[in-house]
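Dear colleague,

Following up on Tuesday's group meeting, I ran the structure prediction for the two-component complex that the binding team flagged. I've pasted the input sequences exactly as they went in, so you can double-check that nothing got truncated or mislabelled along the way. The structure tokens for the whole assembly follow below. Feel free to forward this to whoever is handling the docking comparison.

Inputs:
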Amino acid sequence: MENEAINIEIMQLVFAYIFVLILLTIVKKKDIGHQGEILLASFRMTVQLVAVGFVLDYVFANQNPFFSIGVLLIMEVFAIYNIYGRVQGEISSSLKKIIAISMFSGTSISIFFFLLIIIQIEPWYRADYFIPLSGMLIGNSMTGISLGVNHLVNGFKDNKKLIENYLMLGAEPLLAVKRITNRAFYNAVLPTINSMMGMGIVFLPGMMTGQILAGASPITAIKYQIAIMMGILGSVTLTVYFMVNKGSETFFNERKQINLE
Amino acid sequence: MFKLENVKFKDIIEINELKIEDNLVTAVLGPSGGGKTTFLKLLNNMISADTGKIYYKNRLIEDYDPVKLRRKVVMLPQDPQIFKGSIADNFKFTEELTAKKYSDDEVYKELLKKVSLDKNLFDAAEKLSGGERQRLALARVMLLEPDTLLLDEPSSSLDLETEEKIIDMVVKYARNNCRTMIMVTHSPDIADEFADRIINIEKGKIV
């Protein structure tokens, strides 16, 4: 049972904006405010999706390795800046560098493993697979690293005295912060583990829903969903592992002194 | 043991020349905020001087691996942190941190006796009182058998009687085991009673 997705006419789509009007009416009537923010979010969502729709339409129609890699790099850069923005408080330039390297290397390894070994796309840059699947791995890794960085930074700040105590006794810095780095790693991968727990029972994941709406059989859809979940898990694990381990080194100087300034 | 030449750290401390002999108890006296803790941290390289030279056993401390140096020159901060778990866990974790093999329980029990802490090894460390925590922290330091002990006001939060007892105990340990001990204190009486030499630090300078 493989059917084409039902096409939504522009007028039907316009009608969907009634939900925004409902929200605006409620916040205005109840004096909750933030109408501007809601309008901006709706506007941005529309413009961004329309733009990306046209770009992808062009890229899919003109398969080219430079386009696929170019879009991948743009997604990486946006994700990295998004992580910097999500971190509470200031972070050092060396930690920023580690975040960028972890994000780029961790996601690249998992993307190419996933596309070339598991899905086996041909040619390797086939944009209709390469771009959306890369986006899913990058997006989830971005969330994981953001959580990991926040836990790492707060772990160092909250436990500064304890870490100093360990160092004063003669502990190697990375051993002194082992519990903090382990906790940061676990908290960063936890949302992915939790989402695997509820998948299929509590909710139907987005990719699977999309494929079913596009006409794929549920069996094909779950195979893709299982594969993408493994890919996400791998990508989140690698990026966060690199970031937590190398990132914790940036809190110490070459004389193994703690450096939180 | 230690030699300092033209040492400066920010606007906190400035020492032109100072020698600290080994196997003696040296007290560092002075008002709070005068740079005493900074002085101790310079000696085990928890911080580095902006300018000047610090020697440990006639060798620049920058020439030592900082971790190995800190295992020889162990510092006990003003409010030592007690690790989670039992008293035995505190000893074991200290050994883990310093890459030592676990000792027998008998060694831990002997240390508890030395610091007059009448507790079971499996008692929860977090339930100990302030004075008991200080003693456990000292016992952990003794477990490492350092050459030099740096104590930052080891009993400032305790009552006078407990304070004297703890200092008496640790000074005896240092003298009986030929260790060098440098102890920051706010009390001239304690310095007079226990130290072989007194250094006064005020506004970052030796007076």
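Chain B touches chain A at residues 44-48, 62, 66-68, 70-71, 74-77, 79-81, 94, 96-99, 140-141, 144 (CB under 8 Å).

Cheers,
M.
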